[in-house]
Amino acid sequence: MDNSKVQEILEKQLLTVAKAVEDKIDEEISAIDRLDSDDMEALRERRLQQMKKMAEKRRSWIALGHGEYSEIPNEKEFFSVVKASERVVCHFYRENWPCKVMDKHLSILAKQHIETRFVKINAEKSLYLAEKLKIVVLPTLALIKNAKVDDYVVGFDELGGKDDFSTEELEERLAKSQVIVYEGESSLNASKSKGKTKSVRQSSYSSDSE
Question: Which CDD domains does the UniProt record give (predicted)?
Fold first, then answer.
C-alpha cells in the first residue's frame, strides 16, 4: 500500500474521530443548555423571593424610622428604639461644633444605609443613660446590635483626629463594627487603622469632655 492510500485512510479515521468528538460535545452542550435553563428558572424564582423579602424588610425598616437621621426626645424612647431595630447608631451630642460635624455625616449615612437606624440624643438631658454607658467625650457614637452596645466611636480619634474626615471614613469605621452592611473596599483608613490598639474608651480627642 502506497503512502497516498495510507494518508487517505488516516485522514478518514481522523475525520470519523473528530465527527464523533464533535457530536459528543454538541450533545453535552445541549445537556448543559437544558440544565442551565432549569437552573436559571430556579435562580429567578429564588431571586424573586429574595426581592420580595427585601421589599418587606425595607417597608418594615421605614416604618421604624430607618432611612432618616432623627432625634430621640428622651431616655425612655432610647430603649424602645434599640429594642425595635437590630442595628442602631446613636449619637450622644451637645450643642457644639464637633457634634454638628458628626450630624452632617450621619444624615448622609442614614439615607445610604436603610438597614440601620441612625439617631441622636442630647447627652446633657440624658444623664442617667450617659452615666450608664460611660459617655464622657462628645461626640460619642454608641454602636448597638440586638439591643446591646457593641462598640463606641469616641470623638474623632479613629477618624484622623480632625473634623475634616470624610463620610466614607466614618462609613468604613461603622462597617468595621458590622453595624452597617458595607460592600465597598475599606482602603481609605487602612493605613491609619493598622497598629492601632488603643481602646475606644481611651480617646485623647478633647472636643468636649465636660
Answer: Phd_like_TxnDC9
